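Note to self: keep these together.
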Amino acid sequence: MNLTAYNVLESVKTVEGNDISLCGLSSREGQILIIGVFHGDEPQGEELINRYMAGSNKSNLLFIPCLNPDGKLKSQRGNSHGIDLNRNFPTRNWEWSEHGQYYGGVEAGSEIETKFVIDVLDKYKPSAVITLHTPYKIVNYDGPAQNLAGMISEITGYPVEPNIGYPTPGSFGTYAGVERNIPTITLEMDEYATIEKLYGFIEKIFDRL
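Structure:
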């Protein structure tokens, strides 16, 4: 990982021994948390975050460049257990499901990756969270994040959508945004856009945070 001013504040190892790191300049509460690679087959977020960290020293941002390194290395949506991390959070609407693309695990909050994010939320109490996904080209939001979603929409040209369009039991947006009242953005980027084009958006967004 190409870090300059940013330090690794917290880290944990996955089942397969890969590192998940929280990076920042300060451990103070109330910063904005940005998370990449919830899904291993959506790797763009890590490169975008690392590129930004290599040239920035903004002190109000925290980054988890790659939440799901095991899945990324296998080019699969889920983690090493085949669990969709975005269905594994301990929400009131979590439910057991059959194994498949959106499998949420045998119980809510079971995965190392999920527990790491929950611990970060508990310790650092971020003022907002942005997660980087593909492919829908929308700005989805949960909790009191409409103004933040509008700013991101203005930069990207993607429409603001308060609903992703299908049920998401155990999702991070529900857990953080709806149930913990943290402004939470799910930025769904164009999977066919070049990294250079996406970075043009990301740099403007992060600079305005």
